[in-house]
Design goal:
By secondary structure, the protein is of the alpha/beta class. The chain has one domain: Rossmann fold. Helices cover about 45% and strands about 10% of the residues. The strands form 3 sheets. A 6-stranded mixed β-sheet has the order 5-4-3-6-8-7, sandwiched between helices. A hairpin with an 8-residue loop joins strand 7 and strand 8. The longest helix has 19 residues. Bound molecules: iron/sulfur cluster (SF4) and zinc ion (ZN). Iron/sulfur cluster binds next to helix 5.
């Protein structure tokens, strides 16, 4: 039996290779919550003056996020936001889980149903030119609607459940492609100076996927048991497998990569958000760098397709 490295009494239930220690359930819960609290404070994510919209997808990460934020910061006003993407055999189950978690933590839940609000679903992309890039288009839709919904409920911060593995997966991808513009924007907090964009925060950015899943289990949270049917299209999955291999040799690889990016390279990249010219989409009025935003372009393609189908 392995004894917990913190309390030295109970049986350890989780091994954290990067920290070279094993912890029991109770000590892990304290450890996880302490680390999330530190990240929120260190990166100045929010204060009691903020209203935080928490994106809840039905997955373990966002469920853990809602639970940990509510437990750590009960005085901060929070609202949960869920997007029903209309994916058959998947999205309705996710919505049910989001409802259960919001109810358990006594947080108001706002649901935006893509089909009801905009007349299309993510599944509709199968018949369009986006069919090979469903996840990329889904990402555009999610970013747009989460921001819009957060604005509608007067939230001042939008929290998402991206964990360390997610963050480093994207980071690695941008480095591989030398995408400096995207690297500049990859931060635990994306401060917005635009009144139509809510500042985005990632409170779980220093927690691994393994830790987040175990925390969700410790809290007894329900989360979706099967993956989205389009998950095989996510190019990041392959990158994660590669990063897993690196972590086998160097268990703290993701932590080191994250820290060197945020602490050393980010300041050197000198983000000048203000310098980026932001216009308003001529169709919906939301911020965009071009004439029409990516969301409106997607909606327009799907609408044309539906019109053609009627003939
Ligand atoms: Fe959207 Fe792709 Fe995630 Fe499914 S796997 S929810 S299509 S990003
Ligand atoms: Zn638009």
């Amino acid at each position: 039996m392995v004894i917990c490295a913190a309390c030295k009494k109970a049986e350890a239930e989780i091994r954290l290779d990067y920290a070279k220690r094993s912890l029991c359930r109770d000590c892990f819960t304290l450890f996880f919550e302490r680390k999330v609290r530190n990240a929120v404070l260190k990166y100045h994510m929010f204060s009691v003056k903020d209203k935080v919209a928490v994106a809840v997808s039905g997955g373990k990460d966002s469920g853990a996020l809602l639970a940990v934020l509510k437990r750590l910061f009960p005085r901060v006003e929070m609202v949960a936001v869920h997007l029903n993407l209309g994916i058959e055999g998947y999205s309705d189950g996710c919505e049910e889980i989001a409802k259960k978690i919001a109810k358990a933590y006594d947080i108001e839940l706002i649901v935006c149903n893509l089909r009801k609000a905009y007349g299309f679903s993510i599944s509709d992309f199968r018949k369009t030119r986006f069919s090979r890039k469903i996840c990329a288009s889904c990402g555009v839709v999610k970013r747009y609607l989460l921001n819009k919904t957060a604005l509608e409920v007067d939230a001042t911060k939008l929290a998402t459940g991206h964990n360390l593995d997610d963050f480093v997966g994207v980071l690695f991808n941008h480095y591989v492609h030398g995408d400096v513009e995207q690297l500049k924007r990859l931060l635990p907090v994306n401060v917005s100076h635009n009144p139509k964009m809510v500042t985005r925060i990632k409170p779980l950015c220093e927690m691994t996927e393994k830790e987040t899943r175990y925390y969700a289990d410790c809290m007894g949270l329900p989360y979706k048991s099967h993956a989205c049917p389009f998950v095989h299209q996510r190019r990041l999955e392959k990158r994660q497998r590669l990063l897993d291999k690196l972590s086998e040799v160097m268990p703290n690889f993701r932590h080191v990569f994250f820290k060197s990016h945020v602490k050393r390279l980010q300041p050197a990249l000198q983000v000048e958000e203000e310098a980026v010219s932001v216009r308003e989409c001529t169709r919906c009025g939301m911020p965009t760098s071009g004439e029409v935003c990516s969301f409106c372009k997607i909606v327009s393609t799907l609408t044309k397709r539906k019109r053609l189908e009627k003939f």
